[in-house]
Task: structure prediction
Amino acid sequence: MSVVIGPPATRLLFENDDVKIWMMDVAPGETYPHHYHDYDYVLFYTTDVLATVHDDAPEEHTALWNARFDTGGTQRGIWTYAHSVFFIPGTGFLSPGFVNIGQTTMISPLIEVKRARRPDQEHIGFARSDALVGLTPHGTAHLLENDRLRVTYTELAPGESTTAGGSAGSAVCVIDGALLATDDNGSRREVEWASQSARWRDDAPCQLSNIGTTVYRDISVELK
Result:
């Protein structure tokens, strides 16, 4: 039986020499094909997702899935919840596909780090944070950090602002766009970022204010 090989995620939003920014969008009942992860990557869940391993996954993948996520036969699959974030080292090995068996669409930014690891970054392993699961954060929250990168999440309701700060060299994936005002040492401008768009930020973050009528959300991965 032939195996269908797909990309690391559904849609590529942005690419430069340092990163690739993708969006994973898998509706209930859909199957995502086998794929490769050649680069280290960050995966952030914006929705609760119930998924299970692909039916034709290699036996060793199925055994590993069952060992990690066995529910005693009461439920097929495993839940991953909104605001969970993962850092997963790239292996270059074939990753099994999965099936979304829940009732919600999986909408997840996936940021691959193309920049080569420095010698002091060679032994960085898997990391996960569920610190924001079940919460409704406002402003900017520090989600996960290691010697390779720092992950932050920003959520601004209309009228809310961030504080200035942070460093340059970040991949930004806009989850829900809005009309924003930026204030960089007294220099103000307005910009409207579209939902499910992405960019590379070379300059240090400035203060952001949501001057629109919708909630703004993004995930930022700063490279070290």
Remarks:
- The mean pLDDT is 89.
- The helical segments are 59-69.
